[in-house]
Specification:
Elements lengths: L1 H16 L11 H24 L5 H8 L2 H9 L1
C-alpha cells in the first residue's frame, strides 16, 4: 500500500506540477472499463500471491514467480 500510494502521489506531482508528461484524460467509457478491469485483475493477483504464501514455502513461490517473464514472452509471441 505504501508503494502504490507513493507512486500515485509522485506521479501526480510529476504530471501536474513538473509537467514531465502531458495529462491524459480517459476518452470513453470503454477505455474506463478496460482500465478498471486491469486494476481489479492486478489487485486480485497481488491478493492471490499473498494468500498462496500460507500454503507453500516462500522459495517455491519465488521460483514460480521467476517464470513470469518466460510466460509473458511466450504469450506475447
Amino acid at each position: 500500500m505504501c508503494h502504490m500510494s507513493a507512486c500515485a502521489i509522485l506521479s501526480y506531482i510529476s504530471i501536474v506540477f513538473l509537467k514531465v508528461v502531458p495529462l491524459q484524460k480517459i476518452k470513453s467509457w470503454s477505455q474506463f472499463l478496460r482500465i478498471g478491469t486491469l486494476s481489479i485483475v492486478f489487485c486480485g493477483s497481488v491478493v492471490g500471491g499473498n494468500i498462496s504464501l500460507r500454503y507453500m514455502p516462500v522459495s517455491f513461490n519465488q521460483a514460480v514467480g521467476a517464470t513470469t517473464p518466460f510466460f509473458t514472452a511466450l504469450f506475447a509471441y
